[in-house]
Amino acid sequence: MMKHFGLVAGLTVSLLLGACGRGGVNAERIVAAEKNGEWLSYGRTYSEQRFSPLDKINATTVGQLGLAWYGQFDTDRGQEATPIMVDGILYATTSWSKVHAYDAKTGRELWSYDPGVDRAKGFQACCDVVNRGVAAWGGNVYVGTLDGRLVALNAKNGHKVWSVQTTDNAKPYTITQAPRVVKGRVLIGNSGAEYGVRGYITAYDARTGAKVWRFYTTPNPTGAADGEASDSALKDHAAPTWPGEGWKLTGGGGTVWDATIYDPDLNLVYFGVGNGTPWSPAARSDGKSDNLFLSSIVAVNADTGAYVWHYQVTPNDSWDFDADQPLMLADLALNGASRRVVMQASKNGFFYVIDAKDGKFISAKPYAAVTWATGIDANGRPVEATGAHYETKAAMNSMPGPYGAHNWHPMAYSPREGLVYIPAMGVPFSYENAPNYKYQAGAWNTAVRGDLNGLAETDAAREATRLYLTGALVAWDPVKQEARWTVKNNYFWNGGVLATGGGLVFQGDAEGVLTAYAAHDGKALWKSPSAGQGIVAAPMTYEIDGEQYLAVLVGAGGSGPTSAAFFLPQTPKLDGRILVFKIGGKATAPAYVVPATESLDLKEITSSGDVGRGALLYANYCLVCHSPNASGQFLPNLRRSPMLINPQDWQGIVYDGKNASRGMAAFKPFLTPSQVEDVRAYVLSEAMKRP
Ligand code: HEC
Fold it and tell me: Which of 170, 87, 188, 196 is nearest to 132 (CA)?
């Protein structure tokens, strides 16, 4: 966003006011932060390049990084947030949508806020009960809560200023994304497309919480207009692309659950749209059509929410290929001219460069292993591989699958190197239609068999699979559309990325190690001691009193650890932390106390249930949180659950929801007691195989 640098001089006065904390956060200040070291918004600035010009931590000094301070959280679920730093206060959110405010220099906790999310809501969070951060504007900070509220808090003391319910809480909507504030309006979307919702993004007045505009991403199933900003775009572009009836029950999906950026020059808000409900287009829409605006990048007018352009990344999506991966604005030198572009390392494995003004496709190339398509044609449409549409043919194996070649984990761009740093993955998936799929409101609704992606039978085969799943930090040249360097991680599902003016790139990994790489060649220059559990969040940086700080949240979580725990380091759930480093930092964080695993003797235990039926039910209803073959570790390992011993205990939890207040919901609405016993029979059989 080089164009904005010219604005900086004229803004000195408001900047100084802001820096004293009197002016609060405003648009000029966020734009000016492109040039200075502030971190005022989720992706640092509106362009979300996550490039900080701060350079005191650099190749020469990085070796002296040490812990300046740490903060202890009170929740053991995943920590995905990027903190922001405003006027000396560091704001971080944790799972269950809690907010913590710290003195950014000393780490003293100034206040915290717990919105009191009903833990039963955790059932509707496909990918853990995470939250990605707050937004700041004026004297407030804003948080979206898992149960669909948008809450404004006084930035100084954490007192609630206003709160609005942004979703119909009778439906399986959740919020995990960080709000963004553009021109005094707070933008917030939602999640839930695996369960049956209709996606949208809403703008609320930052002072009052009054709704300003809303953009729905799928047509209203009733055929009526909504009276919202999206009406004409849905009528003109989307409605003709939705044949069939399946989506009318589910709402179609298409949630705006993460990526949201803003271009102040073009006055456009860009957002990514997620997958459809269900995944299978045969069950969703007779398998015939593109289903706009699913899996698309959409640009709307920031003032009105009116449609300006869209680019569909994965038309007729069958594979859960959201286009919600972080978006980024940049000025690239293309064919000798500077062009403002939107970039995305999309879930489907291709890196997209799109014209920011009109949405015109510029280029796309695979940045990771891709087998479902052979390329992207000149019009920007994928050239699908033969047999890719499993819903009309036999089962198919794809690279990537629902985890994506890149997921929500923030990427970073160094304008100095001309490189985008992508936290990439290689996780294959087998797709096949779920036999006899029928929509169940509020349940897992993908119409895809889950049981094809179980664990291999032997230790050796399981280890081979683990090694086959890859994670890599890819330094991608978006102009040449090729990797300049790649560093392989030991596991998939690693942390988001930060790039700095010190010529460094920072990434945490699944083993809890934060590494500083040289931005130009990927050489590892510094590694932190392991934080004791995995890092999935992105680091951020800020400066106070001439010292540069580096902050990152610790806490494994998200869909990797919940649904593929076996392939990640085997640490149990532990309370999250924030770690803040500086040159010469001397603090230490106490080592985690890992609870001992209790032994469980299941030899004499039997079940009247049917293992085969149980396996299918488990794959559809339990796998997403307890991992394939009951191999979960992050959420309870069911193979070691004492609840297996007595069928009544099992029914009490699984059927009646005895532990709903701790995030394990009742399956009474979806399963019969005898089906619940079938699942027990299956889990018991798995426990015998691998105690
Ligand atoms: C949305 C995520 C989610 C899904 C889906 C889910 N669970 Fe759970 N489950 C949890 C969480 C979280 C806990 C831990 C609650 C606590 O702290 O007590 C849990 C705990 C349990 C326990 C208690 C374990 C123990 O030893 O305390 C059992 C048994 C269980 N789940 C079985 C199942 C079965 C069977 C299914 C599928 C029919 C299922 N769960 C689906 C999240 C889930």
Answer: 188
Show the tokens assigned to 66: 């040490």
| 232-270 pLDDT, tens digit each | 999 999 999 999 999 999 999 999 999 999 999 999 999
Tokens of 75: 């929740």
User: Hey, whose CA ends up nearest to atom 5 of ligand 1?
Assistant: 622
CA 626 / ligand 1 centre spacing (Å): 7
Pocket test for ligand 1, best of 75, 625, 633 (most atoms within 8 A of CB): 625
pLDDT of residue 415 exceeding 50 = yes
Tell me what pLDDT residue 484 has. Answer: 98
- Give yes or no for a contact between 401 and 349, defined as CB atoms under 8 angstroms apart: no
Residue 659 Cα to ligand 1 midpoint, Å, equals 8
Closest ligand 1 atom, residue 124 Cα:
1
**Which residue puts its alpha carbon closest to atom 39 of ligand 1?**
622
Cα–ligand 1 centroid distance for 688 (angstroms): 19
- Burial group, residue 486, by CB count within 10 angstroms (0-12, 13-18, 19+): middle
CB atoms within 10 A of CB 515: 20
Angle at 305 between CA 302 and CA 306, to 5 degrees: 110
Distance CA 581, CA 277 (A): 42
Ligand 1 residue neighbourhood (C-beta within 6 Å): 122-123, 621-622, 624-626, 635-636, 638, 641-643, 650, 653-654, 659, 662-664, 667, 679
Question: Residue 436: CB partners within 8 Å, gap ≥ 6?
Answer: none
Q: Counting beta carbons within 10 angstroms of the beta carbon of residue 285, is it exposed (0 to 12), middle (13 to 18) or buried (19 or more)?
A: buried
- Is the Cβ–Cβ distance between 663 and 174 less than 8 Å? no
Residues 6+ apart with CB under 8 A from 357: 266, 268, 340
Q: Within 13 Å of residue 205, how many CA atoms lie on the same side as its CB?
A: 7
Residue burial 379-417, b: 16+ Cβ < 10 Å; e: rest: ebbbebeeebbbbeeeebebbbbbbbbbbbbbbbbbbeb
Residue 459 burial (C-beta neighbours within 10 Å; 0-12, 13-18, 19+):
exposed
Half-sphere exposure of 461 (CA within 13 A, CB side): 5
Q: How far apart are CA 353 and CA 343, in angstroms?
A: 5
pLDDT at 690 over 90: no
| C-alpha dist (Å) from residue 267 to 6, 325, 327 | 17, 21, 16
Closest among 247, 164, 136 to 199, alpha carbons compared: 247
What atom of ligand 1 comes closest to residue 77's alpha carbon? 12
- Could you read off the pLDDT of 618-648 as tens digits, one per residue? 999 999 999 999 999 899 999 999 999 999 9
Residue at 479: amino acid letter:
V
The answer to whether 292 and 238 are in contact (CB under 8 A) is yes
Give the model confidence (pLDDT) of 451-473 as tens digits: 888 888 888 988 888 888 999 99
Place of tokens 């709307």: 300
Q: Which residues contact 21 (CB under 8 A, 6 or more apart)?
A: 87, 88
d(CA 23, CA 398): 51
Cα 636 to middle of ligand 1, angstroms: 7
Distances (CA, A) of 190 to 159, 236, 270, 417, 643: 24, 24, 15, 34, 34
pLDDT tens profile 187-233:
999 999 999 999 999 999 999 999 999 999 999 999 999 999 999 99
